[in-house]
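haha ok so turns out i had the wrong file open the whole time. this is the CORRECT one, sorry everyone. sequence first:
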Amino acid sequence: MNIHIITSKSGVSFFSFLLNYGVGVKIYDNPSVKKFLLKDLKIDEDYISNRIQTLFLNSKPIDNIDNAFLENGATLALSAAMPGTAGALFRKKGRYAAMRKQITYTDNIDIKKNKEGKIILKLFNMPAKELAGIIFERGVLIEKETLSLFLKNYNQRITPHIKEIHSDCKKKDKTIFFNRNLKAINLKVTFS
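then structure:
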């Protein structure tokens, strides 16, 4: 099922919560994390360098985004600087990076090459809010249970922000749409 939701710009804050759970994003030709962020998601290089301070690939902190490659089924998590000791310890190329050497992500030159695949992308704190528009307008894959739970929890607060809902290219009534069982979903959200 393909769902396209058109919402006001004020609706972006609600959809950013979905990024904490993780959304599926298609990848092509096992890109490096840097290439994926720059070319596929079209995130500004300054933003990547200065705002995204903590990155995890398959639960391992990343220091070098040029040498971390995505493969089908991987999970990539991004965050701004986290507070406290954990923030200092896991910050990319931070002064305490040597203390986590055993768990730090290392080059994965032996990854299984795929022409196409899917990763789970998770964003936290400010990047979730600031990049939600870019990510959802590109389109994501989302589990029906996750979207159903999201809609159940935020239905009354998000409905006033929604202008239109299209399911498989057909315009739907939003009050009826939110009260039905959803199937596997390709979700695109446009903020205008």
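The beta strands are 2-7, 23-28, 54-57, 60-61, 75-79, 116-123, 140-142, 162-167, 170-172, 185-191.
again sry for the mixup
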